[in-house]
Specification:
By secondary structure, the protein is an alpha/beta fold. It has 6 helices and 6 strands. Bound molecules: ligand AR6.
């Protein structure tokens, strides 16, 4: 359950105390984000985000895992959606998943190259997913590291885009119930996110 996943504040509380910092009363940025390493399909959140392809009909990577865990009804609903363009997002039910919904977004095929198009498209994936979450009255969402697997977006710039886009969105959409979980799968991504989050997310 979500209450078993610490927020970024809780993850860092002992450090903050040691350094003698005042903890703010809650509701700050650090209460709204978490870093979680593991399988996104087990998370009991309002929505998990799928790093899909433009057919929305499944594939390998996290997409394959999500379809396998959600069952064939997810495929049937995706089949009715007429695909999805790069950078856009579409929402379905979660079916057999513990998550209520799946937000399918299509990341750019980067193959190691990060130019303006790749950057804009990846930014749009996060923005459009968050917009759908809000439109459906949802509060908690988990993102995988979109495009960084089969689509070959370099991990460090992808993390930078994910974190900056989510941070700006949270600042522009204040709601105390918002919780965004960065669900990393690989140790390299865990290390990158941990380092960047320590700099970007601090309430004081
Ligand atoms: N939970 C969380 N993250 C995962 C999981 C999981 N169960 N499995 C893999 N990852 P990728 P892409 C991580 O390749 O680069 C598919 O075929 C993985 O380690 O899944 O956007 C689609 O149909 C990596 O960090 O997505 C598309 O054709 C991250 O998820 C294409 O792949 C994204 O890797 C999309 O490629």
């Amino acid at each position: 359950p979500l209450d078993k996943i610490p927020t970024w504040r809780e993850d860092n509380q002992s450090n903050e105390k040691e350094e003698g910092k005042e903890l703010t009363g809650g509701g700050g940025l650090t209460d709204k984000v978490s870093l979680y390493k593991g399988d996104i399909t087990v998370l009991e959140v309002d929505a998990i985000v799928n790093a899909a392809n433009s057919s929305l009909l499944g594939g390998g990577g996290v997409d394959g895992c999500i379809h396998k865990a959600a069952g064939s009804c997810l495929y049937d609903e995706c089949h009715s959606l007429n695909g999805c363009e790069t950078g856009k997002a579409k929402i379905t039910c979660g079916y057999d998943l513990p998550a209520r919904y799946v937000i399918h977004t299509v990341g750019p095929v980067a193959r190691g190259h990060v130019g303006p198009t790749e950057t804009n498209d990846l930014t749009s994936c996060y923005q459009n997913s968050l917009r759908l979450m809000k439109e459906h009255g949802l509060s908690t969402v988990a993102f995988p590291c979109i495009s960084t697997g089969i689509y070959g977006f370099p991990n460090e710039p992808a993390a930078e885009i994910a974190l900056n886009t989510v941070k700006s969105w949270i600042e522009e959409n204040p709601d105390k119930n918002t919780r965004v979980i960065f669900c990393v799968f690989l140790e390299t991504d865990f290390a990158i996110y941990k380092k960047k989050m320590a700099v970007m997310f601090q309430d004081n």
